[in-house]
């Protein structure tokens, strides 16, 4: 990742004839306290995001399928403002990405279906849609190289404003 505040974690796993076992998160390894989990199950070519907020950390993992995750630095005072990076998350590579507050994230499902899991860490109330910011997925000021030109979008993402 070119964004140093965004961390990628890939846990060790145990495999045998039954399958695989790994630890996604262990509180003793983190200074964050996670208080909210969300799951998104989407079909191929669905793009969710780019969304963010000013207070939540998100630990993002793909539990099934494959997604193209994009993270954008949205901190106006940062030397990396509007810079982005991407990573492919799959249930096989077991990578997790820790996204800080004021970074937007969005994901595109590139398999036939994917289960996207994220743990949220924040203080106070949950930063719901009214507390979040949205960035147009194809904003030319950011120029993200998505592997698709015509994704399936929500009303919110279709109508997100350009910067």
Description:
The chain is mostly beta strands. The chain has one domain: Jelly Rolls (Sandwich), CATH 2.60.120. 2% of the residues lie in helices and 44% in strands. It contains 1 helix and 12 strands. It has a 5-stranded antiparallel β-sheet with strand order 1-9-6-11-4, with no helix packed on it. A 5-stranded antiparallel β-sheet has the order 8-7-10-5-12, with no helix packed on it. The protein has a two-stranded antiparallel sheet with strand order 2-3. Strand 2 and strand 3 form a beta hairpin. The model has no long low-confidence stretch (mean pLDDT 95).
Describe this protein with a few key phrases:
163 residues, 12 strands, Jelly Rolls, mainly beta
How big a fraction of the residues is strand? Answer: 35-45%
Please report the number of helical segments. 1
CATH architecture level-2 label: Sandwich
Strand order of the largest sheet: 1-9-6-11-4
Show unreliable segments. Answer: none
**CATH superfamily, called what?**
Jelly Rolls
Principal-axis shape: globular
Helix content: under 10%
User: What value does the Rg take, in angstroms?
Assistant: 16 Å
| Secondary structure category | mainly beta
Q: How confident overall, as mean pLDDT?
A: 95
CATH topology: Jelly Rolls
Number of domains: 1
